[in-house]
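Annotated sample (chain length 138).
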Amino acid sequence: MSTDFAGAHERHHRDAEFLEDAHRPSNADHLYGFAAECGLKALMTQFGMPVNAAGDPQDRQRDRVHIDRLWGRYPVYLTDPTATDYQLDSTNYFDDWRAGDRYADDQHVTPARLERHRNGAERVRALVQRARVEGLLP
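Output written by the structure step:
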């Protein structure tokens, strides 16, 4: 399998919006987190994050992590000259997001939580779309 972070970002984001529109907030929330994670990894790869032959991050402790930790790791790769205009604000919209939340009951995702995670995903999405327009991502 070859890793396609940009493609996964699009797929997860599209599915998150679909699920939110279908009043399935728990799964939408989860996919907003994965969408943001994949989007940042797509950008980080372009900005110099070392990856293995399959395209996965080589640094398992710091880069092969989920969005709750990845948001804080992203700035490390913004020293690349092509990354100058791809800053995120310092607010980690996913500091309370966990991959293990897939096991939580439906009451776990409140409207405020979903909105915060959607807002974070939209910030990443804007950067990914810009990178595509500018030819940085396919």
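Annotation: Residues 5-133 form one domain.
Annotation: The chain has one domain: 5-133.
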